[in-house]
Amino acid sequence: MKRSKRYAELAKSYDKHELVDVATAVKQIKSFDNAKFDETVEMHFRLGVDGRHADQQVRGAMVLPHGTGKTKKVLVFAKGPKAEEATAAGADFVGAEDMAEKIQKENWFEFDAVVATPDMMGVVGRLGKILGPRGLMPNPKSGTVTMDLTKALEDIKAGKVEYRLDKANIIHCIIGKKSFTEEQLIENANALIQAIAKAKPAAAKGQYFKSISIAATMSPGVKINPATVTL
After folding, report:
1. Quick check: 10 and 220 in contact, CB under 8 A?
2. Which SS3 state, helix, strand or coil, does residue 114 take?
3. Are 215 and 71 in contact (CB under 8 A)?
4. Do 64 and 191 form a contact (C-beta atoms < 8 A)?
5. Does the pLDDT of residue 92 top 60, yes or no?
6. pTM of this prediction?
7. Average pLDDT, integer, range 152-178
8. In the chain, what are the domains?
9. What are the start-end ranges of the E strands in the chain?
10. Which of 79, 127, 131, 200 would give a disulfide with 136, using CB separation of 3.0 to 4.6 Å?
């Protein structure tokens, strides 16, 4: 991948092989020259599990203490009184078969999250091959298939993030914006670490956190020493 001149200069400004604690990693990311926009800050976890086995999957959701810095647009699949509840709770889009058709026929994706009542999963399920690869498929484990639409919407709007293993047994998750204070990013990072630690499968053996890093959109990553993580 071809990197920008700015990226190359930043990469030379620190020891990219050094393992540090969370606070030092955040301080380093904050010290990098800013890009021309407010960069998103992410954490990446390589875990000592094998996601090919159902009993070693790691997946969940949580509300970050300081949110993500982005207000998500939410699509809710619901009918009748539940559709009215969703609208009252602040859903950006509410519908049923009409919304499914809009996604299928118009390739419409002007939303960041999807919530559905259980009775609507027959409709939503047909969108699995479209929503799944984008990480938008509602799931009971992440609280996005529920009858409590008000709470689901409150959590998403407050900064709820979902985390799940990819095919390489790595989790990628947003923890905020570069404009956040160091304290806000540290608290969000530690909250995410604790959530993923609690999600450790019983079948996982050996070292759970193989590697952890933090990076902003346009900057190189800083490696965190897993031994410094408090579980």
Report:
1. yes
2. strand
3. no
4. yes
5. yes
6. 0.79
7. 93
8. 13-67+160-228 (3.30.190.20), 74-158 (3.40.50.790)
9. 40-47, 59-63, 74-77, 93-95, 113-116, 160-164, 170-177, 209-216, 222-224
10. 131
